[in-house]
Here is the input.
Amino acid sequence: MNNGVKILLVEDEPAIIRVTEFRLTKAGFNVVVATDGQMGLDMAASEKPALIFLDLGLPIVPGREVCARLKADDNLKHIPVVIFSASSDDVHAVSEAVGADAVITKPYDPEELIATVHELVGSAA
Amino acid sequence: MAGKTVLPEEDEFLALVKEYVLDMKQQAPRIRQWLDSGAFDSIERAGHNLKGTGGLYGFDVLTQIGTSLEKAAVKRDVEVIERLCEELAVYISEIGIE
Here is the structure.
């Protein structure tokens, strides 16, 4: 199931990391975690994930800057980025401004989480 | 050396829920300390995190408390923060996790 497709979760809140890693791993994905924005950029380059879940409120490099830098990098811009935020107010505007591919609002529906991966990664998952 | 114990999926999730609830038991006292020291930014972050995490572990009430707490912290509304902190402490204490 899902063939161990690699997903990078860039998130600094341990309670969200634990449950999201659990949901994605149980669905058959291979999850790697970065806990700050710089680590997220580094791991996007080194791990070459099929998809990135990206929190906005990250230490060191904010999530919106991480997304903008990923989308400006010719080697990484093809990787779908899903903004992962508990802020519902302007998250869609931010997502559009930085070129993200989708938004998931926390707390998310676990089925929506998996469906979003399938939608963006397609037949690879 | 003993091998890794593999739990059924529901037991694995229950273990995560227990860990979360144990951590949340410390949250109301932390918020009271931040309130005493005027650390409204810390309370705002705690509310934001509670909003994002509660529902993920099956506690929609915690998401509601977190949403209100984040807003109250932005407004520096001490009275509402104290009330929400009490609600949080009572709700967590009534969750039947050993």
Notes: The first helix of chain B runs from residue 9 to 25. The CA atoms of residues 76 and 87 of chain B lie 18 Å apart.
